[in-house]
Specification:
By secondary structure, the protein is of the alpha+beta class. Helix content is about 20%, strand content about 55%. It contains three helices and 15 strands.
């Protein structure tokens, strides 16, 4: 029995030593890290699945009520546009029995932005100086769209008054522009398909349009002579709007690979008595599912007479060239 106890003790000691060795044995350096990585991958997959569900819901909402034989949504949900703009103005303002001709020689701006299903933000900067800029935030759907444009511009005016020689100087203008539209047949006609690319016009279609804009301009004169023309210490603030109606048509080529838009509207200026017109021509070409290029030209004309013997005639134009990278395809 004593010999059995000795054998049992020796065996127990060896077992304790083996247990001790297993506990003291150094573990691999990444044994905990692999568990963390598994948790991270699981969280990432849940986030992606949640995003895909959200994006599919947005797509279903945007296509609700649409005729899919005429209009479809691109496979990519996001875009990063690179934008180049050229614009010019010719504005005649007659305050206090004087005449002020404001003109902007063609100005070139470059910038970039980001967009998601028609909700876009774009910032552009003038190449010629460090002052002028333009920021746009807008949403464009097939039925309706609205955009907010905040900019600072430098005019090169010529001042003419009675028995006065022309005076040339720089005149700064801060502008807030809100513009929008409504398409009557938005279920078949996609106004943004030729300019913004968040929809694709599969078949050619047209629609009556109702458009509007409201503009706030804050002019600031820099010279004493020009300050005499304006009131309020050389500043003049102009608030005006317009309500227009017209028609737009999209020509679809190769089931929407290329789209050309022509539209024209005319209406009245608010609150002053006046005339307002707007004409657009735009083209969109899909190079692939990930890249597209668009060209947009617009002309705005308005002429008004205010109650304070204030006359204004404004003729402006802008041309935009954009190249967009599209990504974020939903499974």
């Amino acid at each position: 029995s004593s010999s059995a106890m000795v054998v049992k003790a020796a065996t127990s000691g060896r077992r304790d030593m083996c247990v001790q060795r297993r506990e003291d044995r150094p573990r691999p350096s990444g044994w905990r890290r692999s568990a963390v990585v598994a948790v991270d991958k699981d969280g990432e997959s849940k986030f992606k699945e949640g995003y895909y569900r959200f994006d599919r819901a947005i797509r279903r909402f945007l296509m609700s009520g649409m005729d899919s034989t005429y209009v479809q949504i691109p496979s990519a949900s996001w875009e990063v546009p690179l934008v180049g703009k050229v614009y010019g103005y010719l504005t005649n303002i007659s305050p206090n029995d004087s005449k002020l001709d404001l003109h902007v020689n063609p100005v070139f701006e470059i910038g970039a932005g980001i967009g998601y299903h028609g909700l876009d933000a774009v910032y552009t900067k003038a190449v010629r100086n460090s002052i002028d800029f333009n920021f746009e935030f807008d949403y464009y759907d097939n039925y309706w769209g609205v955009g907010i444009n905040i900019s600072k511009q430098t005019f090169g005016p010529e001042l003419y008054g009675e028995q006065q020689d022309p005076v040339k100087e720089e005149l700064h203008c801060r502008t807030i522009l809100v513009e929008g539209y409504y398409a009557v047949f938005g279920n078949r006609f996609s106004f943004p398909s030729s300019m913004y690319g968040n929809f694709i016009q599969i078949k050619s279609a047209g629609s009556p349009l109702v458009t509007f804009w409201y503009e706030h301009r804050d002019y600031e004169a820099r010279s004493d002579r020009t300050r005499q023309v304006f009131e309020q210490g050389g500043r003049y603030v102009l608030n005006e709007g317009a309500l227009l109606a017209g028609y737009g048509y999209n020509f679809s080529i190769a089931k929407g690979k290329a789209v050309i838009n022509l539209s024209a509207c005319a209406g009245v200026q608010i609150p002053y008595l006046g005339l307002a017109t707007c004409g657009r021509a735009a083209a969109m070409y899909w190079i692939s599912d990930s890249f597209r290029i668009n060209l947009n030209f617009a002309n705005f004309y308005q002429k008004s007479w205010s109650e304070k013997n204030m006359k204004m005639e404004d003729n402006s134009w802008r041309a935009t060239l954009g190249v967009s990278y599209c990504f974020g395809k939903t499974r």
